[in-house]
Design brief:
Layout: H1 6-21, E1 28-31, E2 37-39, H2 44-47, H3 52-71, E3 76-80, E4 83-85, H4 87-94, E5 97-100, E6 105-107, H5 121-129, H6 131-140, E7 143-145, H7 146-151, E8 157-158, H8 162-174, H9 178-190, H10 196-209, H11 214-224
Length: 234
């Protein structure tokens, strides 16, 4: 079920750090082994032995992993097949795009354990789906099927096989300018917070700065010459 214990979550965090720094990796696709679960959440047996200090460290580790998915300069895609619950749903929420198979189920059932989401779920779910949806799913702990997840904006698309669809989008994104993609991610991550005028000024600055890049020159030249652009990340 791809549940997160300490070793698994640490390995994920470390792998994401490596991918974030790897210039050859243009896009990151996160998926789970098998067809039962993307990730069924945290290992409850492990969590049950934590004290307050240990829970704080556990929460910080989960935030690091989800934050890397959200903040790394390259696009991240979640390919969800099966259950994405609790921490699994939170990792998917950290990704830029989420695709799910029709058999998937998603949710934040932590309330049923006497807990709340601890890896960013309260904030990212509210930003992505709206506060009303976040209140519903987090306060009730109910799960949603793939069709409802699509309807409420929790996933971008349903596909089967979902990993093939994610790889198709990854190939599309990998052909684009990594500099422009990184700028777009920075701006989109600001959209849910901060002062509106500041965010607009940041967009204007990012737009202008890209004109100093070889990628922007190549993109515009290729358009005029009616050919495919070849971006180098410079």
């Amino acid at each position: 079920m791809n549940a997160f214990d300490l070793a698994t979550l640490t390995d994920l965090r470390d792998a994401l750090e490596e991918l974030a720094a790897d210039e050859k990796a243009r896009v990151v696709v996160l998926t789970g082994a098998g067809e039962k679960a993307f990730a069924a959440g945290a290992d409850i047996k492990y969590m049950s032995g934590l004290d307050v200090a240990g829970a704080g460290e556990w929460g910080a580790l989960g935030h690091q992993a989800a934050g890397l998915l959200e903040d790394m300069p390259k696009p991240t895609i979640a390919a969800i097949d099966g259950f994405a619950l609790g921490g699994g749903c939170e990792m998917a929420l950290g990704c830029d795009l989420r695709y799910a198979s029709p058999r998937s189920k998603l949710g934040q059932p932590e309330i049923n354990l006497g807990l709340v989401p601890g890896w960013g779920g309260t904030q990212r779910l509210a930003r992505i789906c709206g506060v009303a949806v976040a209140r519903d799913l987090i306060l009730t702990g109910r799960l949603v099927d793939a069709e409802e997840a699509l309807r409420i904006g929790l996933v971008n698309e349903l596909a089967d096989p979902v990993l093939d669809r994610a790889r198709e989008t990854a190939a599309l994104l990998a052909a684009k300018s990594p500099l422009a993609l990184a700028a777009a991610k920075r701006l989109l991550n600001r959209a849910g917070s901060g002062e509106y005028g500041d965010n607009l000024r940041a967009e204007a600055g990012e737009f202008a700065d890209l004109f100093a890049t070889e990628d922007a020159k190549e993109g515009m030249t290729a358009f005029v010459e009616k050919r495919d652009a070849e971006f180098t990340g410079r």
